[in-house]
Amino acid sequence: MRSSFIILWVFLVLCACTETKKISSVNSESWKQRSVSLEGKDSLLYGKTYLPVYSEIYSFSESQTTFLTVTVSLRNIDMDSPVYITSADYYDTHGDLIRNYFKEPIALNPIETVEIIIDEEDDLGGVGGNFIFEWAIDDDAVNEPLFEAVMISMKGQQGLSFTTQGRKLKK
Questions:
Q1: Cβ 97 vs Cβ 66: under 8 Å
Q2: Is residue 98 within 8 Å of residue 91, measured between CB atoms?
Q3: What is the pLDDT of residues 132-144, one digit of tens each?
Q4: How far, in Å, CA of 156 to CA of 54, rounded?
């Protein structure tokens, strides 16, 4: 009886010492510093862009996968005007929302880029992760933002990387 109690106590202590995994891709302080109000900007043109990302890919077979680090770039490719990103939502393979990256619109200055990093250990997106970005521009003369992702994995002396680009949604 006493040895069972000791084993149970050691197990509970070890479980209690497990650190909560911090996900580096969620940096709310950085987004708060970039937030802007769009009140009074009545003539904005709005759009949505879809971006596929892969935090995990199949390797060798359907039962074995490799995890990837994902760098998502949000780019203002206009030389003169800001663009506004009103939401950045990350969905998993099944279309379930994983997280929203900011609650208020952010502004990107001309030719500015900001990133969202999804750690290699963050496997929530699965093999078919998805981003939906909503954005706004001042008028149709302003270039729409560009959304890209670079996925990378380094194991031993092997590495793999590839990119994807966003696609504007019709509605």
A1: no
A2: yes
A3: 999 999 998 999 9
A4: 21
